[in-house]
Amino acid sequence: MEEGDGMSEEMKQRVRETFSKNNEAYVQSKVHNNQSDLDLVTKWLKPNVSWSVLDIATGGGHVARQLSPYVKTVFATDLTEQMLENTASHLASFDNIHYVIADAEELPFLQSSFDVVTCRIAPHHFPHPEKFISEVQRVLKQGGYFLMIDNTASENDDLDHFYNTLEKVRDQSHVRALKISEWEKLLLKYDLQLEDQLQRKKKLPFSDWLNRTLDNDEDKKQVVRFVEDAEDHVKAYFAFQKKEDEIIDFSIDEWMVMARKL
Questions:
Q1: pTM for the model
Q2: What confidence tens digit (pLDDT) does each residue in 223-236 have?
Q3: Which among 30, 40, 39, 66 is positioned nearest to 203, based on CA atoms?
Q4: 3-state percent helix, strand, coil for the chain, nearest multiple of 5
Q5: What angle do CA 88, 18, 150 make, to 5 degrees?
Q6: Share of the chain above pLDDT 90, in %
Q7: CATH class of the 5-154+172-205+255-261 domain in this structure
Q8: Cβ distance 154 to 237 under 8 Å?
Q9: Which of 13, 109, 168, 227 sits a CA distance of 20 to 30 A from 208?
Q10: How far apart are CA 87 and CA 64, in angstroms?
Q11: What is the C-alpha separation between 180 and 198, in angstroms, rounded?
């Protein structure tokens, strides 16, 4: 057993517990249901009716649902059985989506199986991002596309530390949002050539974001206190907005990237 494997399994169990408890919240989440975001996935990929697509950590199945009408088949995978069952019931009318319980770092598919691999708003839960990217490269066909969207950390170490700590206080299944520079190194290492990218700010409704993972009032207050104690330049960077002394929303960094397997 590799050093740290026990910790990795503990983190994955936290993911299962978090998403089992909150599976419907992720299906209904305004952030995850952002249609303009999903339309951009289709625009970038230009899907083909012959394609077989793998959507890793599908969650509420938003990307799988988006691509389903344009491709031959979609395999929607997730680590959490209850999440996958709930998503499958919501998407029962899409008969070309198949559901598989799978670990993003140990995919149960043969090499060169898919024309496209997607993963949206999930990699920050993965204990070993390098294993994830290695698996993406393995299951992609040569010339196939990998499209990822995820929250990212600032290249500034102080802002990186604040954001990842904030997420961890709110969500014990959070591992780490990587910097874009870290993702770029992994793509390069595994011969995934960057084709397109988009860096943007994503506004999050604070209450929706907070309540998606927490139901204990004291835990919620702890998150609020952590924000209130932050230095002014940190609050400014994340654009925390208040109304009548209550945090309404804030903004985080997000990266959308499309790469091709060489």
A1: 0.89
A2: 999 999 999 999 99
A3: 30
A4: 45, 30, 30
A5: 75
A6: 82
A7: alpha beta
A8: yes
A9: 13
A10: 10
A11: 11
